[in-house]
Write a structure and sequence with these properties.
heterodimer; A: alpha+beta; Heat Shock Protein 90; five-stranded mixed beta sheet; 13 helices; 5 strands; B: mainly alpha
């Protein structure tokens, strides 16, 4: 028995779109000619005095495009998605519209000062808020929210290396937002002058200022352009250097440590084969699955790391964990540094008895202590070619906004304190 | 039972409220001045956007 073909979902038809593809998508859903739907819509716009057009604009961001079904999005679509997707932008726009609605109600009720003052003030405040948010987002050290990063990352821009902090992608969207903020503030000033009949006198001065600014822009544009390019290149180099350091730290912690263990246990082929297989699995997982994160809990991850080191080195490790945190990028770095500290303790102080780990997490902050009763060492006298403490512990913590303190004196054991302060929201 | 799509629910209610205002205006039950109509539309759109932003936060 033949079954009727399923009707397509209602989504914007970006391939046959004239504006957003809403009508073409509706025609596809209804299985009629798009021209027919467009004629009906045109009539509706005329009959409703333009209200149908407002409905079209409102529906635009809420009806998904068909690019998810395999069709590539147009440039306009991609720009709109980037500009409208971030959650904060929608929240800000929503709050802005609610404020506007409140102002309009006050105006209708007569609780109002003057149109010539209030509207320019509202425009200037909106522009200033936009610029303020923009300048805050551009502060060094602030990372873009994960969602926005996911939006900005296209399929072609796969993460360069797993486990690395996501670099902030300041691009055209930032420029548009900044430009819009400036335009709002300037527009507010002009509106205020115009509404208060002060623009006539100021026109000549404004013309002179505009001419001077245009001339300056023409003179400085090449230098500013080059400066911007240099800054971007410097930033890219810094990110690359951070990626290299992170890659080196991971290889040191995993592959080099395993090779050392394999050399030590060369007389036991089965154990060597087990070590090699485990390392291969871990490396494949890190390279191809993004990261070897099996848990979302920092406490569990620390306990897992301790268990792995205990298995690998045969040294008892006593773990005490108080509280818990979500395992994000920074917490994952803390786990990796803890694992390296434990590995060092097991390798160099394992004969002196159990290694102790004490971890405390609360209010978004975490503190981990790794103690052993070994021979100890002088942290100042670590050879330059040894990267364990310097890069995998201290460097890694610093790269992720944390701190590592090594307390050790020859003959009295070692204590490594790893601290991660609560992240500012 | 499928979970409720809160954004659609809020959007539907907001549009119903705006529609109700327009119907009341057409039947001369109320006099909808342009300022109030604009405020109602802005409020409806604002509520939808806020609901959409908050819904993403809960995912």
């Amino acid at each position: 028995m033949a079954t009727a073909a399923a009707r397509p979902r209602f989504e914007r038809d970006t391939e046959n779109a004239i504006v957003a593809g809403l009508l073409a998508g509706l025609a596809r859903r209804l299985d009629v000619d798009p021209l027919l739907v467009r004629i009906v819509f045109g009539v509706l716009v005329l009959v409703t005095g333009g209200a149908a057009l407002v409905v079209y604009v409102i529906a635009w961001p809420f009806v998904p495009g068909d690019e998810e079904a395999g069709r590539p999005a147009t440039k306009t679509e991609r720009w709109l998605r980037r500009a409208s997707s971030p959650r904060r932008l929608r929240l800000a726009a929503g709050v802005g519209l609610l404020t506007l609605a409140t102002l309009l109600v006050f105006r209708e009720l007569g609780i109002w000062w003057s149109d010539a003052v209030i509207w320019p003030m509202v425009m200037a405040a909106s522009g200033a808020a936009l610029l303020w948010a923009q300048s805050r987002a551009m502060q060094p050290g602030l990372e873009v929210e994960p969602e926005a990063h996911a939006v900005a990352t296209t399929a072609a821009e796969a993460p360069s290396a797993p486990g690395l902090p996501a670099p902030r992608r300041a691009g055209a969207a930032d420029l548009y937002r900044g430009g819009f903020g400036v335009a709002l503030v300037v527009g507010a000033g002009l509106l205020f002058l115009s509404a208060n009949d002060a623009l006539g006198g100021a026109r000549e001065a404004v013309l002179v200022a505009v001419a001077a600014i245009a001339a300056l822009a023409l003179i400085l544009a090449p230098f500013l352009w080059r400066l911007g390019r240099n800054l971007a290149a410097e930033r890219a180099e810094r990110i690359r250097s951070q990626e290299r350091a992170e890659l080196a730290a991971h290889l040191h912690d995993s592959v080099l440590q395993t090779l050392t263990l394999m050399q030590k246990r060369a007389d036991n082929p089965r154990e060597v084969a087990t070590l090699a297989r485990r390392q291969e699995r871990e490396l494949r997982s890190w390279l191809f699955d993004g990261r070897s994160r099996r848990t979302a809990s920092l406490a569990t991850a620390i306990e897992d790391a301790a268990a792995e080191v205990e298995d690998a080195h045969g040294v008892p490790i006593e773990v005490v964990v108080v509280g818990d945190l979500e395992l994000d990028e920074r917490a994952a770095a803390l786990v990796a540094a803890t694992r390296e500290a434990l590995t060092n303790a097991a390798k160099f102080a394992g004969d002196a008895g159990a290694v102790a780990v004490y971890a405390e997490m609360q209010n978004g902050a975490a503190q981990v202590f790794v103690r052993d009763r070994g021979a100890g060492f002088d942290p100042e006298r670590i050879p330059d070619d040894r990267r364990g403490v310097r890069e995998s512990i201290v460097g890694r913590m610093e790269r992720h906004g944390g701190k590592a303190t090594v307390r050790s004196t020859p003959g009295s054991g070692t204590e490594i304190e790893l601290t991660l302060e609560a992240e500012e929201r | 039972m499928s979970s409720v799509d809160r954004v659609s629910l809020v959007a539907g209610l907001a549009m119903m409220a705006v529609g109700a205002l327009l119907v009341l205006d057409q039947t001369d039950a109320i006099e909808l001045r342009p300022g109030i109509a604009g405020a109602a539309l802005a409020a409806a759109l604002g509520v939808i956007l806020v609901a959409s932003g908050l819904a993403d936060n809960r995912r």
